[in-house]
Design goal:
327 residues, alpha/beta, Rossmann fold, 3 domains, 5-stranded mixed beta sheet, 3-stranded mixed beta sheet, 11 helices, 15 strands, 41% helix, 22% strand
Amino acid sequence: MIGSPRDAGIHVVISAFRPEPDLLAGIAELHGNVDSVIVVDDGSGSSADDVLATIEAAGATVLRLPENSGIAAALNAGIEHARSLGAGHVLTLDQDSRLPAASVAELLAALEQATERGHAAAFAVPEMFASVSQVASRAEDGTLLTRHSIQSGMLVPVTTFEAVGTLRADLFIDLVDTEFELRCTSAGLVGVAAPGVRLPHSLGAAYERPTWLRLVTFGLGPKDVTLSTPFRYYYRVRNRIVVNREFRRTQRAWIARDTLVEVLHFVVAATLARPRRALWRLYRAAISDARAGRMGRASEASMQDAAGIRWATPRVQRLDDAPLVEG
């Protein structure tokens, strides 16, 4: 087994957009325990100058994209920089994720152990992302196999990128990690989870489940419903159609289940949106763009529609809204 993350050539890539000063805490935790920390600013503009200068002074490499190009493009820029430095592995993180340095070694150990057991491991992720398990099944040898892995906290050998490519930049945001995992699976590679490792993270805003929804589900399920920021529904719908088109023949069961779950969620979101017609316009734009192959950033008209949408149910507090840094 490799003794430390530095021995494995691990470079951390963090995507950032209008970063807050508390990003420094996460970088300080990792600094000295990995080969480098690379922060890619995704077109924040001059408003981020002071924070990024402080981050650079703390020892991180800062790359600045001239315009907002999406999380996949930002991570890809960092991945390519890490590869130019001779990286053996890349660990990707969101700007609001905090992964203790000790967990990096555990991710590496899980990856190595899976390989030693004969698994063609594409990447390793924490067992828990916030309160959600990333484990789909346990192999007979005890290896934890994943599905629906989140890219934040994902440790990827450079050989995986060489085999399947980097992240799909034209998706911009949403389903970027899903598409990457599906590509790995189609290539015969598997994701593995590091037992006991948890990445603290916010899962999004939680809202009270309305009475009609509780009645429809016979009182089953959680007491709240997680809703994305409205503009994300454009990307979720468009990218779901695009990903389905790409993998519907090779990963039929996976695509069918995910599509059913998402469509049900889109219906719930549409009933809770105010004004509803604005979210329906967003859905129609997403469907039209997916069919026409219009990718990348959403149009200004769609972003304006999204900006006027509110959710007609009270927001609730839950444990996932707690501070992200664990003691």
